[in-house]
Design brief:
Number of domains: 2
CATH architecture of the largest domain: Alpha-Beta Complex
Low-confidence stretches: none
Radius of gyration: 21 Å
Number of helices: 11
Strand order of the largest sheet: 6-9-7-8-10
Strand content: 15-25%
Shape: globular
CATH class of the largest domain: Alpha Beta
Length: about 375
């Protein structure tokens, strides 16, 4: 069995504007440590899967920045998608790409679908969970996902229902239902029941299992896969600058659909393994206080700043040309770059994308 890791890294990270930009999104920032998040993602999985079997699927604009950030990763393993079509077409492309690359049966390749921009607390526990998930997927025709034990009634995550309340770490059990982002009352009920886990967005399967599920559940992708196979045949071992040209006309026809909605919520062979590590989506500026050190007043501080009577705030100053001073400012986010400043209440940090959309509508693309 050939084990591979596929890291999806095409996101734009708009909720981390103004630090995050079009050619330097969240995965290319150092948000949870002094390392870029995509570097952390590679370093976590290398003890289990050799770097030559790790692949990054991203956008054309991010392909070369990611290659530069990961000089030890074979450059041909950073694959550009021709168009942005969400996670289901991306992973279908990855499955077809890897089958062509290795030239073996689809049943002889397993995939670990990992994330480029999440916080994971303990590498050893992460490796144990991933290894167990892969072993199960390799010996069973199952689509396996990692479920995270919830630690708060989070309304920004999806949940997975299982039939084993308060399951032990690394226990694998069937998924009953996938539930989209609930309100706070429902999320509290989920936690109280002990039957719900956060959906981590990490998946594990043999390629034959995955392609069979696409055929059963997502015909709008399946009926274009033969054309995609022909388009990329014998082009998966070379360093391609941009997307494989012949793949563009096929990939453009794929629907914009997520793997959760297109496959996982419909399939009857989904298994969940309970994580043995802490995890966070790192979805917006207010999430940093869950993983960054806090000062005595509960503030996250990065860069030159002076705080007076300020509490529970996040201050990120990436500019060496100015200092940030806050007086009597509680529960706010301030982010400063050389050309932009963001100020918002911490509980509105999820809405930063609205500022990005407004700038785009004004034609101020140079700030994005």
């Amino acid at each position: 069995m050939i084990r591979t890791a596929v890291i999806m890294a095409g996101g734009s990270g708009e909720r981390f504007w103004p630090l995050s930009r079009r050619n330097r999104p969240k995965q290319l920032l150092a948000l949870t440590s002094d390392k870029l998040m995509i570097v952390e993602a590679i370093e976590r999985i290398v003890p289990l899967i050799p770097i030559e079997h790790i692949y990054i699927f991203t956008s054309e604009i991010l392909q070369n920045p990611i290659r530069k950030a990961l000089p030890n990763l074979p450059p041909e393993n950073v694959v550009a998608e021709p168009f942005k079509r969400n996670t289901a077409p991306c992973l279908a492309y990855a499955a077809v790409f890897l089958t062509d690359k290795y030239g073996v049966s689809e049943s002889e390749i397993s995939m670990a679908i990992l994330t480029a921009d999440h916080f994971i607390s303990t590498s050893s526990q992460f490796i144990q969970t991933v290894d167990n998930a892969l072993k199960y997927a390799e010996s069973n025709s199952k689509l396996v996902t990692i479920g995270i034990p919830p630690v708060r009634p989070e309304t920004g995550y999806g949940y997975i229902e299982i039939d084993t309340p308060n399951a032990e770490p690394n226990l694998i059990c069937p998924a009953i239902t996938f539930r989209e982002k609930p309100n706070k009352e429902t999320a509290s009920q989920f936690i109280k029941s002990g039957n719900f886990l956060w959906n981590s967005g990490m998946f594990f399967w043999r390629i034959d299992t995955f392609l069979k599920s696409i055929k059963q559940n997502l015909t709008s992708v399946d009926d274009k896969l033969e054309g995609l196979k022909l388009a990329i045949h014998n082009k998966t071992t070379i360093v391609c600058d941009g997307a494989i040209p012949d793949a563009k006309s096929v990939f453009e026809q794929f629907p914009d659909i997520s793997i959760d909605y297109g496959i996982m919520e419909k399939a009857d062979n989904v298994a969940v393994i309970r994580a043995g590590f802490l995890w966070d989506d790192v979805g917006s500026w207010d999430s940093l206080d869950r993983m960054q050190p806090l000062d005595e007043a509960g503030n996250v501080i990065n860069g030159k700043s002076v705080l007076v009577d300020t509490h529970n705030s996040t201050i990120i100053n990436s500019s060496d040309k100015q200092v940030v001073a806050l007086i009597g400012a509680d529960d706010i986010v301030v982010v400063v770059t050389d050309d932009a400043i963001l100020v918002c209440p911490k509980d509105k940090a999820q809405n930063v994308r609205q500022a990005v959309l407004a700038l785009r509508e004004l034609g101020e693309e140079n700030y994005l």
